[in-house]
Every structure is written in C-alpha cells, then in structure tokens.
User: Fold Anti-sigma regulatory factor (Ser/Thr protein kinase) from Actinomadura viridis.
Amino acid sequence: MTAAMEVLGDRMVLSGDPRDGRDARRAVRERAAKVVGDAEVLDDIELMTSEAVANAVLHGSGPVRVTVATDGRRVRVEVRDGGPAGDERADPDRCRLDHGRGLAVIDALAAEWALERSPGDTRLWFVVAAPPL
Assistant:
C-alpha cells in the first residue's frame, strides 16, 4: 500500500479453503462500500477480488493475505501469497499465471494493476476510482 492510503479494516488472512473466496469478496465489498457510492463499481471490485484470490489459491503457497485501502478518491485491493506453489517452482514451464480470464478481467476493469512475483512472494494489486457516496 502507498503511504497516502489508509487501510480499511483488518488485513484478511485466508487459509486457501474454497469458501475463502466468497468470504473475501464479501468483506472487500463491505470495506470498499465505505468510500464507493456506485453499485457497479462495487460489483467490479468484488469480481476482481474473486479472480485475484482464485489465482492466489490456485497458483500460490501459504496463506493468502488481502488488504483494502483508500485515499478517498481510489480504492486499492492487494492479494498476496507465499509465492509459486511447489510444482510451479520445480517446473517453471508449468507456471501459468491464469487458467482463464482472471487477469484479463482485472486488466479490463482496473484503473491500474500489477502482478509482482518473487520466489517467496506473489502480490497482485489493483486500483479503481472511488465514485463518491
């Protein structure tokens, strides 16, 4: 998160259980709704969160951490995990960042986004404008 952004709520730590995605979507939407007044933008944030968490669960290792922050004009969601899963570390050719449409969805909907990877950490973040309440 950038220094100018305030974290909304506690950082979420997910175990990788399939239900975690649903819980994360709901929690991120609730937090974003504190500063976003447009239901369609909230729908987009929820969808992008779902895709980011699914990628972390499918391709990552360790717990998945989700943080929501705002500067009042933008909302930033960050999803982190412990880096590529064991089979992807052993065979980089098997490492596919996205099985389907996840990153394409984020690319289409986010004002800004990035996927940053290292051997011990993967971080996907996206930013959307926060239409006023």
